[in-house]
Amino acid sequence: MIAATKGHTATVQRLLEAGATVNHKSKAGWTPLICASLGGHMGVVKLLLEKGADVNICSKHGCSPVYAASENGHTDVVDLLIQAGADIHLSSIEYGIVPLEIASGSGHTETVRRLLQAGAPVNHQRKGGFSAVFLASQGGHTDVVDLLIQEGADIHLATTKSGTVPLGIAATLGHTETVQRLLEAGATVNYQNKNGITALLNAAMNGHVQVVRLLLEKGVSVNVCNKDGFSPVYLASQEGHTDVVDLLVKAGADIHLATTKSGGVPLEIAAASGHTETAKCLLDAGAIVNYQRKDGRTPLFGASFNGHAGVVRLLLERGAGVNICDKGNVSPISVASQNGHADVVDLLVQAGADIHRPITEYGSVPLEIAAENGHAETVQRLLEAGAAVDFRRKDGRTPLFFASFNGHLPVVRILLEKGAGVNICDKDGFSPIFVASQNGHTEIVDLLVQEGADIHLATKNGNIPLGIASENGHAETVQRLLEAGAMTNYQKKDGRTPLFGASFNGHAEVVRLLLERGAGVNICDKDGFSPVFVACQKGDTDVVDLLVTAGADIHLASKFLIVPLEIAVDSGHIETVQRLLETGVPVDYQCRGGRTPLFCASLGGHVTIVRLLLEQGAGINICDEGGFSPVYAACQEGHTDVVDLLIQSGADVNLSTTECGSVPLEVAAENGHTEAVQVLLEAGATVNHQNKEGKTPLHSASAEGHAEVVRLLLEKGANSNIADKYDRLPLGIAAEMGHTDTVQRLLEADDTVFHQSKTVSALHSSVKKQRSKDYESTSIQLESIAHLKN
């Protein structure tokens, strides 16, 4: 294989004599003949053919020897292979390319000639509809194109996807000679592909001036647009091909033809793209300087938006309306200010732009927009032009507000030097220093303080800069505000202090700062929630540590009677729970309703916390005020791992202190927690325990239709014939509720059930009460089962 690839004929001869396989294939399916053909090694190809090489074996990708030779223009090899019987119609697998097409696309004229002589179909199209003449035109191989045309190539064969023809691709790529030959052969000069694109459109867009000239000489329609309404002059203007635009204009191009979607015209797109010379050419040709697109935007608008000062100057000189706004009431100077094009702003101001005209639904002006976006030089120019430094939008926000909000220090400095009101608030009471503090812009906060900002100006909800800085964890800003005299214990309308906000959001560094400044560690909000409470709720142990060390009252309950330990347990924060216990909180501290931490952890399924509390000696059978124990709570929610742990630690599974006399097994059965039921039964739970209404766990499971629990209870000895105080059996209740599967389980458990009058009576009484179709179905099934059992 290597010898054939390198063209070492003598070596190939020796190897063949030594028994080398002439048609050996590599992993990619390449044979020695393919390799030699690709390299044009005539001697090796001849030798291999003499030794019986298969001339039509292809690689895995469908590359045959003749294909390989055609790709590289080895005409003598191609001729030899054809004589040896090469199939010139074999194509590559992925694209379906035949030798003629690869040779044409590569510009190998003589190879193309030999393949045509051998009968290669001149109009074969590979996948995607690409023909030999198309590929030759794409490569600008005019000699090949000429040969193919002479042999009958159809120059109007189009590609499948876009419908492009040879003339279109040649014009797109600027192959002037090829375009000339195709036109001489009768190519349709105004042919449009599936997107409506002509040869002239693509030539104009790509700036191929010679091709454009040639097409115009051949009578091409200068104003034919594509499906989006783009004309040749529009596309040439977009790309700044002034020489092409000039040619088209002189040939009668309509410079006011608008695009379909936006309604844009050549001057507008040239201006927006910054093509000064093209814009001048169009204006000289009579383009409307104040033409407005569908959205109302003019050429001046687009040039101003993109900062093209040269175009702006030209348009203004030609009489462009400096204050013409788009349909959103946005002016050229507004968009120039928005994007910080100070030189454009200068030009517009000098031309009479209205810098006080509010735009947008908020009533913004250029100065505010420039300030918001941090364009210091533009802000300076606008102020020098007389812009109102304290202009307020509809929401009351000023340029200083926005510069402070976004942290644009140079802009803030300029505005303050020009006398901006440092304490002007918006409609919600937000001041510049408040929003600077909110976002942690410490340098701006410092500057505003120096200029007299009121650090206690409160918003409508009563918040102040220190409060919002603390909430958001901006330690440096908090430090600066405290140094400026901010009230450490200031309370918002809801009673929350800066320390509360910092604790709630877990900002330990801010908490430390506030505590060092004497923040009240036990000041609560209106609902009685303290800083340490919310820190426990969030599980921020570092913050809890700081607060406890500073004297936080860990027994302080909210107005809902919830204490820090309870909320930490409820939220599953084991580290926080550990820390609170270390501070001396009683492990069996009873919160609202008499609930202990162990009860809360069991109810929430926090097994790691349950284990911790048990290790700390928590009372395992302490019930809440309703008589519910921790194991009862865990069973209610189906936390089997917690149930198991409690039982192993000595929980009484038969403890019945509730008002109705319920036990853990009953509530687990009622809620369908099969695994919990299994654990309880294995631990010795009384399977036939009756509560004060005479209900057993089997009653509860049957009423809710938990068939698997019913099965388990029956297997463990549950008596299905125990009636409650209303004389109802589990079977009757299940039937009444329409639980067919449960009824089936109960019937299968006792073959004598239908011989017991109480059971039959209960069953028929239940069936009579059924009203829905489901109940009727259950009734019929019961009757059928009863008949079978008797």
Automatic annotation (TrEMBL):
UniProt keyword Kinase, yes or no: no
Gene3D superfamilies linked: Ankyrin repeat-containing domain
UniProt keyword terms in alphabetical order: ANK repeat, Repeat
Positions annotated as ANK repeat: 1-27, 28-60, 61-93, 95-127, 128-160, 162-194, 195-227, 228-260, 262-294, 295-327, 328-356, 362-394, 395-427, 428-460, 461-493, 494-526, 527-559, 593-625, 626-658, 660-692, 693-725
Database matches in InterPro entries: Ankyrin_rpt, Ankyrin_rpt-contain_sf
Cited SUPFAM superfamilies: Ankyrin repeat (SSF48403)
UniProt superkingdom: Eukaryota
Protein name per UniProt: Ankyrin-1
Organism: Geodia barretti
High-level lineage: Eukaryota, Metazoa, Porifera, Demospongiae, Heteroscleromorpha
